[in-house]
Protein backbone atom coordinates (compact mmCIF):
# COMPACT_ATOMS: atom_id res chain seq x y z
CA UNK A 1 0.00 0.00 0.00
CA UNK A 2 1.62 3.24 -1.13
CA UNK A 3 2.05 6.44 0.84
CA UNK A 4 -0.35 8.33 -1.43
CA UNK A 5 -3.04 5.73 -0.92
CA UNK A 6 -2.65 5.86 2.89
CA UNK A 7 -2.95 9.66 2.76
CA UNK A 8 -6.16 9.37 0.69
CA UNK A 9 -7.61 6.87 3.17
CA UNK A 10 -6.79 9.13 6.14
CA UNK A 11 -8.25 12.17 4.36
CA UNK A 12 -11.34 10.24 3.33
CA UNK A 13 -11.86 8.99 6.88
CA UNK A 14 -11.49 12.50 8.31
CA UNK A 15 -14.01 13.91 5.81
CA UNK A 16 -16.35 11.02 6.54
CA UNK A 17 -16.16 11.67 10.30
CA UNK A 18 -17.02 15.33 9.78
CA UNK A 19 -19.96 14.46 7.53
CA UNK A 20 -21.34 11.86 9.92
CA UNK A 21 -20.85 14.22 12.86
CA UNK A 22 -22.92 16.82 11.02
CA UNK A 23 -25.67 14.33 10.25
CA UNK A 24 -25.93 12.98 13.79
CA UNK A 25 -25.08 15.77 16.22
CA UNK A 26 -24.81 14.52 19.77
CA UNK A 27 -27.66 16.05 21.70
CA UNK A 28 -27.07 17.26 25.24
CA UNK A 29 -27.86 14.41 27.56
CA UNK A 30 -29.58 15.14 30.82
CA UNK A 31 -27.58 14.73 33.98
CA UNK A 32 -24.26 14.80 32.14
CA UNK A 33 -21.35 17.14 32.76
CA UNK A 34 -23.28 20.32 32.05
CA UNK A 35 -24.09 23.37 34.12
CA UNK A 36 -27.62 23.87 35.41
CA UNK A 37 -28.21 26.59 32.82
CA UNK A 38 -27.44 24.09 30.03
CA UNK A 39 -29.26 21.09 31.54
CA UNK A 40 -32.36 20.19 29.50
CA UNK A 41 -34.05 18.99 32.71
CA UNK A 42 -34.04 22.47 34.28
CA UNK A 43 -37.03 24.78 34.01
CA UNK A 44 -38.03 28.00 35.72
CA UNK A 45 -41.16 28.61 37.69
CA UNK A 46 -41.66 32.24 38.62
CA UNK A 47 -37.98 32.89 37.89
CA UNK A 48 -36.88 30.08 40.24
CA UNK A 49 -35.03 27.00 39.01
CA UNK A 50 -36.43 23.48 39.27
CA UNK A 51 -34.84 20.23 38.07
CA UNK A 52 -36.80 17.15 36.99
CA UNK A 53 -35.71 13.49 37.06
CA UNK A 54 -37.62 10.29 36.34
CA UNK A 55 -36.61 6.86 37.68
CA UNK A 56 -37.63 3.31 36.79
CA UNK A 57 -35.66 1.13 39.23
CA UNK A 58 -37.47 -2.02 38.09
CA UNK A 59 -35.60 -1.73 34.75
CA UNK A 60 -32.41 0.23 35.52
CA UNK A 61 -31.84 0.75 39.26
CA UNK A 62 -29.33 3.60 38.93
CA UNK A 63 -30.51 5.33 35.73
CA UNK A 64 -32.26 8.68 35.78
CA UNK A 65 -34.16 10.17 32.88
CA UNK A 66 -35.66 13.48 31.92
CA UNK A 67 -38.05 13.84 28.98
CA UNK A 68 -37.20 10.51 27.28
CA UNK A 69 -38.42 7.65 29.48
CA UNK A 70 -37.40 4.32 27.91
CA UNK A 71 -40.09 1.96 29.25
CA UNK A 72 -43.73 2.08 30.22
CA UNK A 73 -44.70 1.21 33.79
CA UNK A 74 -44.24 2.53 37.29
CA UNK A 75 -42.20 5.73 37.16
CA UNK A 76 -40.92 7.83 40.05
CA UNK A 77 -41.10 11.55 39.30
CA UNK A 78 -38.83 13.85 41.28
CA UNK A 79 -38.62 17.64 41.07
CA UNK A 80 -35.74 19.27 42.94
CA UNK A 81 -36.42 22.84 44.03
CA UNK A 82 -33.02 24.34 43.22
CA UNK A 83 -33.88 27.80 44.57
CA UNK A 84 -34.54 27.92 48.33
CA UNK A 85 -37.41 30.42 47.94
CA UNK A 86 -39.67 27.72 46.43
CA UNK A 87 -39.46 25.50 49.51
CA UNK A 88 -42.08 27.50 51.43
CA UNK A 89 -44.45 27.91 48.46
CA UNK A 90 -47.27 25.35 48.02
CA UNK A 91 -46.30 23.43 44.89
CA UNK A 92 -48.21 20.65 43.10
CA UNK A 93 -47.82 18.36 40.09
CA UNK A 94 -50.13 16.89 37.50
CA UNK A 95 -49.37 14.31 34.79
CA UNK A 96 -51.57 14.64 31.73
CA UNK A 97 -51.92 12.12 28.88
CA UNK A 98 -51.11 13.75 25.53
CA UNK A 99 -49.51 17.13 25.07
CA UNK A 100 -52.42 19.56 24.71
CA UNK A 101 -52.01 23.26 25.43
CA UNK A 102 -54.04 23.44 28.63
CA UNK A 103 -57.67 24.06 29.54
CA UNK A 104 -60.34 21.48 30.33
CA UNK A 105 -58.69 18.85 28.11
CA UNK A 106 -55.86 18.58 30.64
CA UNK A 107 -58.26 17.82 33.50
CA UNK A 108 -60.02 15.15 31.43
CA UNK A 109 -56.71 13.44 30.59
CA UNK A 110 -55.12 13.58 34.07
CA UNK A 111 -53.16 10.41 34.89
CA UNK A 112 -51.81 11.48 38.31
CA UNK A 113 -52.23 14.52 40.56
CA UNK A 114 -50.44 15.74 43.69
CA UNK A 115 -52.10 18.69 45.42
CA UNK A 116 -50.03 21.80 46.19
CA UNK A 117 -48.18 21.63 49.52
CA UNK A 118 -44.91 23.16 50.69
CA UNK A 119 -41.75 21.05 50.47
CA UNK A 120 -39.22 22.20 53.10
CA UNK A 121 -36.75 19.47 52.06
CA UNK A 122 -36.70 20.91 48.51
CA UNK A 123 -37.95 17.75 46.79
CA UNK A 124 -41.36 17.06 45.23
CA UNK A 125 -41.95 13.33 44.76
CA UNK A 126 -44.62 11.30 43.03
CA UNK A 127 -45.17 7.95 41.38
CA UNK A 128 -47.28 7.27 38.31
CA UNK A 129 -47.92 4.34 36.01
CA UNK A 130 -47.08 5.70 32.57
CA UNK A 131 -48.00 3.58 29.56
CA UNK A 132 -46.34 4.03 26.19
CA UNK A 133 -47.16 7.47 24.78
CA UNK A 134 -46.82 11.22 25.19
CA UNK A 135 -47.42 13.07 28.47
CA UNK A 136 -47.11 16.49 29.98
CA UNK A 137 -45.89 17.00 33.55
CA UNK A 138 -47.30 20.30 34.83
CA UNK A 139 -45.80 21.90 37.94
CA UNK A 140 -47.80 24.63 39.64
CA UNK A 141 -46.88 26.96 42.49
CA UNK A 142 -49.22 29.37 44.29
CA UNK A 143 -49.04 32.83 42.73
CA UNK A 144 -46.57 31.80 40.00
CA UNK A 145 -47.05 30.79 36.38
CA UNK A 146 -46.82 27.00 35.88
CA UNK A 147 -43.96 25.15 34.24
CA UNK A 148 -44.10 21.89 32.33
CA UNK A 149 -42.10 19.04 30.81
CA UNK A 150 -43.13 17.09 27.71
CA UNK A 151 -42.48 13.40 28.38
CA UNK A 152 -42.03 10.67 25.77
CA UNK A 153 -42.54 7.20 27.23
CA UNK A 154 -41.22 4.19 25.31
CA UNK A 155 -40.92 6.14 22.06
CA UNK A 156 -38.29 5.51 19.37
CA UNK A 157 -35.34 7.90 19.71
CA UNK A 158 -33.95 8.13 16.19
CA UNK A 159 -30.99 10.28 17.26
CA UNK A 160 -29.85 7.52 19.65
CA UNK A 161 -30.19 4.92 16.90
CA UNK A 162 -28.16 7.16 14.60
CA UNK A 163 -25.41 7.61 17.20
CA UNK A 164 -25.18 3.84 17.72
CA UNK A 165 -24.95 3.25 13.95
CA UNK A 166 -22.10 5.73 13.41
CA UNK A 167 -19.29 3.39 14.59
CA UNK A 168 -20.17 0.36 12.44
CA UNK A 169 -21.00 2.61 9.48
CA UNK A 170 -17.59 4.28 9.68
CA UNK A 171 -15.81 0.91 9.80
CA UNK A 172 -17.72 -0.27 6.73
CA UNK A 173 -16.97 2.92 4.82
CA UNK A 174 -13.26 2.80 5.67
CA UNK A 175 -13.14 -0.85 4.55
CA UNK A 176 -14.93 0.07 1.32
CA UNK A 177 -12.43 2.88 0.73
CA UNK A 178 -9.48 0.51 1.33
CA UNK A 179 -10.94 -2.08 -1.07
CA UNK A 180 -11.58 0.64 -3.66
CA UNK A 181 -8.03 1.98 -3.41
CA UNK A 182 -6.65 -1.56 -3.49
CA UNK A 183 -8.66 -2.41 -6.62
CA UNK A 184 -7.57 0.75 -8.46
CA UNK A 185 -3.93 -0.32 -8.31
CA UNK A 186 -4.63 -3.61 -10.06
CA UNK A 187 -3.54 -5.64 -7.05
CA UNK A 188 -7.02 -7.02 -6.47
CA UNK A 189 -7.23 -8.25 -10.09
CA UNK A 190 -3.79 -9.86 -9.87
CA UNK A 191 -4.75 -11.49 -6.55
CA UNK A 192 -8.01 -12.86 -8.02
CA UNK A 193 -6.17 -14.11 -11.10
CA UNK A 194 -3.60 -15.88 -8.92
CA UNK A 195 -6.42 -17.51 -6.90
CA UNK A 196 -8.06 -18.80 -10.10
CA UNK A 197 -4.85 -20.29 -11.44
CA UNK A 198 -3.80 -21.84 -8.11
CA UNK A 199 -4.18 -25.68 -8.04
Would you mind describing this structure in some detail?
With 199 residues, the chain is α+β, with helices and mostly antiparallel strands. It folds into 2 domains: 3-24 and 158-186, no CATH class; 42-153, Macroglobulin (MG2) domain (Immunoglobulin-like), CATH 2.60.40.1930. 32% of the residues lie in helices and 34% in strands. It contains 4 helices and 10 strands. The protein has helices at 3-23, 104-108, 158-184, 187-197; strands at 42-45, 48-55, 64-65, 68-69, 73-81, 91-97, 110-117, 123-130, 133-141, 144-153. Strands 1, 2, 3, 5 and 8 form a 5-stranded antiparallel β-sheet that branches. Strand 9 (133-141) and strand 10 (144-153) form a beta hairpin. Helix 1 packs antiparallel against helix 3. The radius of gyration is 26 Å and the shape is elongated. Residues 23-31 have low confidence and may be disordered.
Using brief descriptors, characterize the structure shown:
single chain; 199 residues; alpha+beta; Immunoglobulin-like; 2 domains; 5-stranded antiparallel sheet; 5-stranded mixed sheet; 4 helices
A few lines on this structure:
The chain has 199 residues and is α+β, with helices and mostly antiparallel strands. Helix content is 32%, strand content 34%.
Helix/strand/pairing class, anyone?
A: alpha+beta
> How would the global form be characterised?
elongated
**Fraction of residues in β-strands:** 25-35%
Radius of gyration from the alpha-carbon trace, in angstroms: 26 Å
Number of helices: 4
What separation lies between the terminal Cα atoms? 27 Å
The total count of strands amounts to 10
Q: What share of the residues lie within helices?
A: 25-40%
Unreliable parts: 23-31
Major sheet details? 5 strands, antiparallel
From the structure provided, what is the oligomeric state, counting identical versus distinct chains? single chain
Mean pLDDT: 78
In total, the number of domains comes to: 2
CATH topology call of the largest domain: Immunoglobulin-like
Amino acid sequence: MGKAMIQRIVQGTAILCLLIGGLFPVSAMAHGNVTLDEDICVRRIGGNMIHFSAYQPQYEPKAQYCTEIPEGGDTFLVVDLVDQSLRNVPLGMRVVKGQSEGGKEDEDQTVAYWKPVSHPDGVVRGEANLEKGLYKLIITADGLSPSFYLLRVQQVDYSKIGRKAVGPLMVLLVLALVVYEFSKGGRLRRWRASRRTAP
